[in-house]
Structure to design on (387 residues):
């Protein structure tokens, strides 16, 4: 495992910790560091020929697009808010065309954004051990020391390399081995992973392996070591694809979903001018204000009935006349009049309040549409309904 691998693992652990337990302040610090890295001294500023993470033919914007995909949709959506519109317009099309990012390239990209990899305090684990050794002895000696540590860990934990294998890959490695050997290997795996591997076995093999597991007693360390060596040799010969496959357009749609309605629509409008086909494809993956105009009125009536007059007044504020007519047509005439009175009384309205209510409303309709509870005419016309 090289330095880049450790950095990649450190970043993954950090991202996991932020998802699980970060408060708003910590997230703000991370975002600030990320934005700073992107704007000054990050990939947007590093010439292509100087970047370790660059692939031949990549532009700086494509490299940033890869970084955004690697950090995930939630963080990508937050970061895009702080970038200049001119940069966003060049990054978005790149995201939609990315199909894979190699492990080495991913590690190099994360290293280039070292401020995202470094945690504010040491948290333990292999990555921290490497950081401490690197600071004390330098990268070269730290790498050699970690290799020795890894060897000791591997000896104490046989079949550790199977942890990242799929059920099918484990089954392929056990092909030709006896039920007793298979049972020994599976006994060292996490119960969930072992159960998944057993589930994909043929009935006869499954029955025999389960029986062996039930009757298993102590096994000589020498026997386990011999089996471990055999299986590890098989594993090293398995064909592996070290690329992280990515659905660029799907990921872009997920990023847009997490952005404000205004920013989402602005990006779609810009794409409509430069790449109409991509814009149409994204529209199919998203639920926008345009879809509200064609949404099932019965569903809208129920939804609006649960909203206050004031919230509806804010919902239709600063919208196109078609949107206002659609919403008001789904309430009674008398209530529509009250809503318009509420709107007049509330003026001038804060844009952030209007945007917040609109975002919540559209998000709820989007969720209902994705679950199949809401029908949108013109998009769901191929569905068959039974009265």
């Amino acid at each position: 495992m090289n330095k880049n691998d450790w950095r990649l693992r450190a970043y993954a652990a950090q991202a996991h910790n932020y998802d699980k337990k970060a408060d708003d302040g910590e997230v703000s610090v991370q975002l600030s560091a990320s934005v700073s890295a992107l704007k000054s001294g990050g990939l947007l500023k590093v010439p292509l020929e100087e970047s370790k993470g660059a692939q031949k033919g990549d532009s700086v914007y494509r490299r940033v697009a890869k970084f955004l995909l690697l950090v995930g949709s939630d963080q990508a959506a937050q970061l895009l808010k702080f970038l200049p519109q001119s940069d966003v317009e060049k990054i978005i099309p790149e995201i939609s065309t990315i199909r894979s990012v190699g492990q080495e390239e991913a590690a190099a990209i994360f290293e280039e954004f070292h401020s995202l990899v470094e945690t504010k305090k040491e948290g333990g684990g292999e990555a921290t051990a490497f950081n401490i050794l690197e600071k004390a002895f330098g990268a070269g000696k730290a790498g050699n020391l970690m290799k020795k540590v890894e060897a000791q860990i591997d000896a104490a934990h046989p079949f550790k390399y199977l942890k990242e294998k799929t059920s099918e890959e484990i089954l392929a490695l056990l092909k030709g081995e006896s039920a007793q050997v298979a049972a020994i290997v599976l006994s060292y795996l996490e119960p969930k992973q072992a159960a998944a591997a057993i589930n994909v076995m043929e009935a006869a093999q499954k029955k025999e392996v389960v029986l062996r597991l039930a009757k298993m007693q102590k096994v000589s360390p020498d026997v386990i070591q011999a089996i471990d060596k055999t299986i590890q040799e098989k594993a090293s010969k398995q064909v592996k694809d070290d690329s992280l496959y990515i659905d660029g357009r799907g990921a872009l749609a997920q990023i847009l979903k997490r952005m404000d309605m205004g920013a989402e629509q602005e990006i779609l409008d810009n794409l409509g001018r430069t790449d109409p086909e991509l814009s149409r494809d994204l529209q199919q993956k998203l639920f926008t204000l345009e879809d509200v105009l064609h949404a099932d009125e019965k569903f809208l009536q129920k939804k609006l009935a649960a909203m206050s007059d004031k919230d509806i007044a804010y919902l239709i504020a600063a919208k196109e006349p078609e949107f206002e007519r659609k919403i008001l047509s789904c309430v009674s005439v008398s209530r529509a009049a009250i809503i318009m009175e509420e709107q007049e009384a509330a003026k001038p309205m804060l844009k952030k309040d209007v945007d917040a209510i609109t975002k919540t409303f559209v998000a709820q309709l989007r969720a209902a549409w994705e679950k199949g509870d809401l029908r949108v005419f013109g998009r769901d016309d191929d569905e068959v309904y039974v009265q």
Observations:
- The longest strand covers residues 100-102.
- Residues 1-24, 45-53, 115-124, 383-387 have pLDDT under 50 and may be disordered.
- The beta strands are 100-102, 243-245.
- Residues 39 and 45 are 7 Å apart (CA to CA).
